[in-house]
Input
Amino acid sequence: MKFKIIVLILVIILLISCSRNIKTNQPNVILIMVDDMGYECLSTYGNLDYQTSFLDSLANNGIKFNNCISQPLCTPSRVKIMSGLYNYKNYEHFGYLNDREYTFGNLMKDAGYTTCISGKWQLNGLAYKDSIKNWNDKTRAKIFGFDEYCLWQYTKTRAEGERYSQPLIEQNGIVLSTNKDDYGPDIFSNFILNFIDSNKNNPFFIYYPMVLVHDPFVPTPDSDVWNNPDLKYKNDTTYFKDMVIYVDKIVKKIVMQLRKNNLEENTLILFTGDNGNHTSIYTNTKNGIIQGGKGNTTDAGTHVPLIAYWPSKIKNNIEYNGLIDFCDFMPTLADLVNRKVESDGVSFYNLLMNKKHNQKDLMFLHYDPKWGKNVNKYRNQFARNVDYKLYRDGRFINLKKDILEENPLEINSLSNRELLIYQQLNEELRKHPPMLNKTNFVK
Output
């Protein structure tokens, strides 16, 4: 009898040990999304104004995606990337995500991951307090699957406190006490470093929607004028360069924390932006000067960086020229944790695993920001492949020759190849309901 008990105890210990080994072999995931960063901000994509050396190194040792397409504005992108669904299915208000939605936070939590979110929230519906009853619910991050949070614009509006010097940040139910020397991006990133330290023995998922590089364009702690109190919140595009370089610095800090804890090899890092640069930003690149197109459905408003870094799986530098859509992140993460989710996207998990990938030939975008007139005027739908774009209102664009979309092609002058592409994109548009209150749709 005693022998059987000893054997049973040994079996239990062995099972627990195996379970722990399986658990620790699950990859950690960190998804970093910069606020208002077009692809042209990074030197790996041809920026000539400044160097983002660490992000370049990640691209040189990972996968650089050359055609990642976001929504043109922050909340539409956040709702889409978190849920994997087209905006016409679940985008209700600017600055809001209905708590009935299933997000990648829920997905990773359900898969056994410890989860956190740090940075910009903007999803409680703070602009609609009269109609959204739970706008001040401090548990909403947890409802969407995040165990811990450190957030700006959670239950406090931007008018109550900004994000950079002396930021207004809510962390796990507490409003932090800050002063003018405190810098929001440092608080958010240090929260992530501490989270990594505390959860290094368990698989974790970190979602870091940065507050950088959104306006106001202000000094960082590395700027020469940081210690001048009169300039800490002076909005000047001169400081945009410093803000981009500070993004590079923060990403390096996070990777160094992984390295310190021997977690770098088994951690997938995805780095992207939520939409293009602000329209006041002009960037000198190897392809000429690019004006930011935030809010607009042009390439400058929707073309964002995407870098995947995962040392244990991605062994060689890869440049991927196929389309990636913000719907694609959810099914990719689902494949990573071997789960099924409802999604309008196509997983790119096989690319990360160096396996055969069924490339997405075209994509669809629905954009109705439901916000100010400066962005609402661009509401539209389009289908596109890498080289061509067809809008619901009939404009057919050759993106290689007309990146500013100033000269739509005449349908009766299309080549046979272009006519075939037009028909394919038109067919994709017909799969989706047209926008309300719009006329002149493609026939």
Q: What stands out?
A: The first strand starts at residue 28 and ends at 34. Confidence is low (pLDDT under 50) at residues 11-23, 439-443.
